[in-house]
Amino acid sequence: MPVARHFASRNLLVLIFLASIAPTVSAQLNESSVTLTAGQKSQLQELAARVLKHSDAAGCKKSCSILVANFTGESGSTSEIGMALADELSSQLTAQAHAIQIVNRHVLREYLERERIASKLLEDDNAARWLAMDNGATEVLIGYLKIGLTQANLHVQLLDTHDFAKRVRDMQAKTFVEEEVFRDVSNFGSFESAEPFGEPAALKGANEAVDVSRSGSGKITAIPHCTYQPDPSYTNAARTVKFKGNIVLRVIIGKDGLVADSQILKGAPFGLNKQALDVARTWRCQPAEVDGQPVAAMVPIEMSFRIY
Question: Cα angle at 202 between 200 and 203, to 5 degrees?
């Protein structure tokens, strides 16, 4: 039997890399600007009741907790209306669930602000289950929204985290898919991709560091070069589902060649963000130079995860 091997590679990217990922941040926001009508809220109230009615059969017993994920569309991305519907449905579940805990959606927003995982990477059922587990929930409610000219169809499904990475035939919980049809979609707007996070906070020391990714850094006479840069390891969850993807970090390499600070620009699920950040802090580099003198530099780094 062939042995599966995993490999994680990294690239120190300079000059124009940030421009290449601009489309992933241009349509991001912190709060939805959509206002739902009283009728739409009433429909979501009824939908919440149906979800709770089937929750026991879906594996959600009295001691369970539910995370409502951002609802996505045909492209796999979420949107303002997708987040607004998820927010309201979560509120309705909270109002109706007595013995079941509903994870506060603000917790999810703060989590995604920090981890910066695009909704397309979370549309897979196992990724959604992992998201729930990482936020302390035992169930995750996912939703798919299809918007037409005159109506919108929302399908929601409750997934049990205990079924993570299981084959369908081995799952104990039954699958229930509930649908709600919205006849009035005049306030829905377009399903333009929008993530629940904006520009990341500035790194410590960013004001004193030279940003090698920007075109105005021509005064740099030597870019950072890392002499010790071990690869990040796969997590068990990522290895189990054979995840493949990329993570983009932004780091500050100090005058001493050490990574002084780092953050996620583009994240990945299954705990790989922490793996990437942890290993980057161990790197040893030759610092950037200006006129032969070492200087602190801010550099984007891409780490690729592949499993064979």
Answer: 110
- For 207-248, the pLDDT digits (tens) are 999 988 775 555 788 889 999 999 999 999 999 999 999 999
Q: Is the pLDDT of residue 277 over 70?
A: yes
pLDDT tens, 30-45?
Answer: 455 789 999 999 999 9
d(CA 211, CA 224): 11
Task: Give residues with Cβ within 8 angstroms of 303, minimum separation 6.
Answer: 8, 9, 10, 11, 231, 232, 246, 247, 248, 249, 276
